[in-house]
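To whoever is on call:

I kicked off a structure prediction for a single chain this morning and the downstream step that reads the tokens threw a length-mismatch warning. I double-checked the sequence; it's 227 residues and nothing unusual in it as far as I can see. Pasting both halves so you can look.
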Amino acid sequence: MVRDSAEVAAAGADWLAARLAEAVAARGRASLALSGGTSPRPMYQELARRPVEWGRITLLFVDDRCVPPDHEKSNYRMVAESLLAGVAPASVHRMPGERPDRDAAAADYARLVPDAVDVMLLGMGDDGHTASLFPGTDWSVPTGARCLATRAPVAPHERLTLSPEVLRAARRVLVQVAGAGKAPVVEIALMAPPDPVRWPIHIVRDTADWLLDGAAASQLSEEKRDG
């Protein structure tokens, strides 16, 4: 779905709230995995205003930088400021990125991840990465894990991330992308032959819903924009 830039935050919050309500109605509880970055902040602020049954929600993180939770680059800090300041989920599981043994931290976090996350929000970098799954690795090959220690090409380099298997198994996924700078990559993400080595976003291309502003969708055909 393509939205005006001013509508993206509200549309995303509505989508997340509706999918959480569906999961709670179906299973009595729901898991929600959130991404960081700057784009989702307004959406999380909007989500805090929606009538979500937070007492039935387990909050997880898609990925995080290996920094303390109060660090300015921490995804946890951004979510805490924009969402958790106004709501109280049943449980919140942040990724312990500050631990020196990243592999052990990833293994411990994996034990908290359900077989299928109910609702997941992803973004996409201008190199086609999603979560902290970066180009150069064949993400079509099973990792055998639910959480991985990875390394980003930009600082802070060390990351923890949910694995491709977890992304694929999620029941509902929303990919949110905004800005004209992402338009060429959006076209590749949605139109090019699948290549998860070069474009990790292709892991979820065909299973996710997409929320784009007009600028990000500017290089798509009218048919694809309407779809």
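Update from on-call: the warning came from a stale cache, not from the record. Cleared it. Sanity check on the structure: The radius of gyration is 16 Å.
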